[in-house]
Design brief:
Radius of gyration of chain A: 18 Å
Helix content of chain B: over 70%
Helix content of chain A: 25-40%
Shape of chain A: globular
Strand order of the largest sheet of chain A: 6-7-8-3-9-10
Largest sheet of chain B: none
Oligomer: heterodimer
Largest interface: A-B, 16 and 15 residues
Radius of gyration of chain B: 19 Å
Chain lengths: ~250, ~220
């Protein structure tokens, strides 16, 4: 089966320092793929290659191909804004805009030229419902996006991504700033979202990767050491380095 | 990120399995000694000692639960803990067999062993030996050794059939042998089951070492 995203022989350099070494990885549609590994292993760099977020960093260079539905996203003809609409991203720290909850979610659709109020209301409600936040905020849509709790802010950011109807959601440690209950809500949400979206998550929390993902990739010093079905990777890893990492024998 | 405290706890858990193993080895040895010597005192000791084996099992299972709940073990560590729970169950049942032999001894009330003593003793010796070796393989995560050990179950099986046929012949020869022959068969059967339990332990060693769930032949 062809992956939704196929990374082929990716090498990535920050000012000549190689951060990713010949990474090839297929991300299946409607699955959650987790990327784990110690700090500096390249997992976030790899994630950021998938929607060309690394383009924003100076003196970087990428070799190889990233195919999204068989089309190379690094092709010069690709419109990066369109690409990032298809491949949305949620970051470590919730980063709502200093606007109302409603406007946070409506921001993307407005940028796409949707100004009809009832249409926007529909999108906002649908997105907030999909992000499992609607019931908590429906009576306070005019409240500032910054006034709600951290866990709610992160779900608001997910709703903001969903509002532009992406196909893929990249999550870079989306729960690292959240408490266990808020984390659980995001994890449950991911589970619901995967029916409709393809999700790639970078996480430092191995238990989280084990709980939420279908497949896991273990990165170490810029290499993809092992990639496979999550259940297997956490119970019977093939590579000794993966075993050492997941059992905490590293160091 | 080296999890020293957790791995220390894991070593303690494996140490506890070895303690339980030696308790069971001793119980089997004493049970068969009491069979050989018709020592009622020793038989009673084995029966009473079984409570301590049962307690050890719960202690080990409790530790396994606690480690799973609090440490979220992964990969090889998780497999060791899961295997340990199976080992504890199997060892506990082996302790029951030893206590069962001791109970039969209390009811034996006859000096004759119908020429099965050497076979029974040999069955017990092999059982204790392979139990010991299987626990060593567990500590070493040695799956090849586990497969080798499991093969020795055949020796115990053939001794069991030897005892069985001797007892049947004795019963055919003289019906007055029936009570003692029946009990000797029970003793031999329990020893044969002990050896089967060692095979289960060997399967767990393979799982702990490799993650493969293998059925080793055991009748």
């Amino acid at each position: 089966m062809n992956g939704k995203i196929m990374a082929q022989n990716i090498n990535f350099y920050y000012e000549g320092v190689q951060a990713l070494k010949d990474i090839s990885l297929n991300i299946n549609p409607n699955e959650i793929t987790a990327l784990i590994g110690p700090s500096g292993c390249g997992k976030s760099t790899f994630l950021r290659c998938l929607n060309r977020m690394n383009d924003t960093i100076l003196k970087t260079r990428l070799e190889g191909k990233v195919l999204l539905d068989d089309a190379d996203i690094y092709d010069p003809k690709v419109d990066v804004v369109e690409l990032r609409k298809k491949v949305g991203m949620v970051f470590q720290q919730p980063n709502p805009f200093p606007k109302s909850i409603f406007e946070n979610v409506a921001f993307g659709p407005r940028r796409q030229g949707i100004n009809n109020h009832s249409q926007l209301c529909e999108i906002v409600e649908k997105s907030l419902k999909a992000a499992a936040l609607w019931d908590e905020v429906k009576d306070n849509l005019k409240k500032s996006g910054l006034s709600i709790s951290g866990g709610q802010q992160q779900r608001l950011c997910i709703a903001r991504v969903l509002a532009v109807e992406p196909e893929i959601i990249l999550m870079d440690e989306p729960c690292s700033a959240l408490d266990p209950i808020a984390t659980l809500k995001i994890e449950e949400l991911m589970h619901d979202l995967k029916n409709q979206y393809t999700i790639v998550i970078v996480t430092h929390n191995m238990q989280q990767a084990a709980r939420v993902s279908d497949r896991t990739g273990f990165f170490l010093m810029g290499e993809l050491v092992e990639f496979g079905i999550t259940d297997r990777l956490f119970s019977r890893p093939k590579d000794k380095r993966t075993e050492d990492y997941v059992t905490g024998r590293f160091g | 990120m080296v999890r020293e405290t957790f791995h220390h706890e894991l070593d303690k858990l494996i140490g506890n399995v070895l303690i339980m193993g030696s308790m069971v080895e001793k119980a089997i040895s004493h049970a068969v000694d009491s069979f050989a010597n018709l020592s009622m005192e020793m038989a009673k000791q084995v029966i009473e000692g079984d409570d301590m084996i049962d307690q050890k099992r719960f202690e080990i299972e409790e530790s396994c639960l606690r480690l799973i709940a609090t440490q979220q073990p992964m990969a090889g560590d998780l497999r060791i803990i899961i295997s340990t729970t199976h080992l504890a169950t199997n060892l506990e049942r082996m302790g029951d067999y030893a206590a069962g032999i001791a109970e039969i001894n209390l009811a034996l009330q006859a000096n004759s062993r119908l020429q099965t003593l050497a076979d029974i003793t040999r069955m017990a010796d092999i059982g204790i030996d392979i139990l010991h070796e299987s626990l060593k393989a567990f500590v070493d995560r040695d799956s090849n050794k586990a497969r080798e050990i499991a093969l020795r179950d055949d020796e115990v099986d053939s001794l069991y059939h030897k005892v069985l046929s001797k007892c049947i012949s004795a019963m055919v020869e003289d019906p007055r042998n029936v009570p003692v022959a029946t009990r000797i068969i029970w003793v031999a059967h329990k020893l044969e089951r002990i050896s089967d339990r060692v095979t289960n332990i060997c399967e767990q060693v393979i799982f702990a070492a490799t993650g493969a769930m293998e059925e080793l032949d055991s009748d």
